[in-house]
């Protein structure tokens, strides 16, 4: 089963409300993600087996809890023009993600469209220094020049977004909610220049982890996903590499709230997207440089192996000598990325 999209949402509501919940009482686009769809391309000619039930969360801070949550995204508003180019206009935007307002930027190609859309999930930048739209300027520009509406979310606690004081202690799972709400807000806006039947997801570094979470929490929401130099699909490995060596006091807060992996292994299993790769329905492309000394390529190889073992459509492209941010091979990687989205979104 696919998530309802755009104008088709209301028409499908009666048939889908029991399983998904398309439109809430407040008129927002919503998605209840309690069970994975059987297939994003299932047809009446080949009925799929019934979806397995979602796991019962042992902790409200978990991916299963997000799977059972009814997500809301609405009120996408275009603000001031930030940039005008020969190919697109960039706007400051805000949208609602459940009870929070999230800021970001949106590049809209010139012309009538409708254009396919991409939601971008940026990597880690200290929220104290982050500015709206920061993180992937090369990708924002190139993708818009190639005919994609690009919605780059700032996430909660960043730039002009509302604050969520518990987000860091709760392993930043709120960023996953912000990405889910971004696509729901795009669809609820019913913009004539956006084709809400063709929406992809792209993330880099920490944003790659957000992509993994989104694919397991909301299968069928996007059509395809791409990640660059992603973090580990096991949060404890990210903490051990990035936070614990720096003496980050947040580590102590996290372990006080949720226990260590040794004390509470079930919690850590339930916040790891690799635990739930069997739910994923979208094709996934991963780029990783062999010289990445920030996010070890071994992390990605382990994640890819889990996807492959579950029979999922995953492709890994490695780039000899490339580091975490990609340099000389970045144009090559974007050629591959655009060809991938061309196959799955066009």
What general form does the structure show?
globular
CATH architecture: 3-Layer(aba) Sandwich
Number of beta strands: 10
Radius of gyration: 19 Å
Mean pLDDT: 87
Predict the CATH topology. Rossmann fold
Q: Secondary-structure element sequence? A: HEHEEEEHEHEHEHHHEHEH
Features:
single chain, 346 residues, alpha/beta, Rossmann fold, 10-stranded mixed β-sheet, disordered N terminus, FrsA_esterase
Outline the structure in words:
Residues 139-345 form the Peptidase S9 prolyl oligopeptidase catalytic domain. It comes from Streptomyces shaanxiensis. Residues 1-25 form the signal peptide. Residues 29-63 are annotated as: Disordered. GO terms for molecular function: hydrolase activity. Helix 4 (174-189) packs across helix 5 (206-217). It contains ten helices and ten strands. Residues 1-28 and 32-53 have low confidence and may be disordered. The protein is globular and about 55 Å long. Strand 9 (284-289), helix 9 and strand 10 (314-319) form a beta-alpha-beta unit. The chain has one domain (8-345): Rossmann fold (3-Layer(aba) Sandwich). The chain has a ten-stranded mixed beta sheet with strand order 1-2-3-4-6-5-7-8-9-10, with helices on both faces. It is of the alpha/beta class. Helices cover 31% and strands 23% of the residues.
């Amino acid at each position: 089963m696919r998530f309802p999209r755009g104008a088709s949402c209301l028409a499908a509501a009666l048939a889908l409300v029991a399983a998904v919940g398309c439109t809430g009482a407040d008129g927002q686009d919503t998605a209840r993600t309690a069970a994975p769809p059987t297939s994003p391309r299932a047809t009446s000619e080949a009925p799929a087996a019934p979806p397995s039930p979602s796991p019962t969360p042992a902790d409200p801070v978990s991916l299963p809890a997000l799977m059972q949550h009814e997500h809301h995204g609405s009120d996408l508003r275009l603000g001031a023009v930030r940039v005008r180019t020969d190919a697109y206009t960039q706007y400051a935007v805000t949208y609602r993600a459940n009870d929070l307002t999230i800021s970001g930027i949106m590049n809209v190609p010139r012309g009538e469209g409708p254009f396919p859309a991409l939601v971008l999930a940026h990597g880690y930048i200290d929220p104290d220094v982050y500015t709206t739209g920061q993180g992937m300027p090369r990708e924002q520009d190139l993708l818009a020049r190639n005919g994609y509406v690009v919605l780059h979310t700032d996430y909660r606690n960043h730039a002009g977004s509302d604050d969520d004081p518990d987000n860091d202690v709760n392993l930043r799972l709120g960023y996953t909610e912000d990405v889910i709400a971004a696509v729901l807000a795009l669809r609820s806006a019913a913009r004539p220049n956006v084709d809400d039947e063709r929406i992809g997801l792209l993330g880099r570094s920490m944003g790659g982890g957000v992509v993994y979470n989104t694919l397991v929490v909301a299968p069928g929401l996007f059509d395809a996903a791409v990640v660059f130099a992603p973090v580990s699909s096991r949060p404890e490995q990210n903490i051990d590499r990035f936070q614990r060596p720096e003496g980050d006091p947040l580590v102590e807060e996290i372990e006080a709230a949720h226990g260590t992996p040794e004390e509470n292994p079930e919690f850590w299993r339930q916040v790891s997207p690799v635990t739930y790769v069997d739910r994923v329905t979208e094709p996934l492309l991963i780029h990783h440089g062999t010289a990445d000394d920030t996010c070890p390529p071994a992390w990605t190889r382990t994640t890819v192996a889990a996807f492959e073992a579950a029979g999922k459509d995953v492709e890994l492209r490695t780039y000899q000598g490339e580091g975490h941010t990609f340099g000389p091979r970045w144009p090559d990687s974007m050629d591959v990325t655009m060809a991938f989205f061309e196959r799955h979104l066009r």
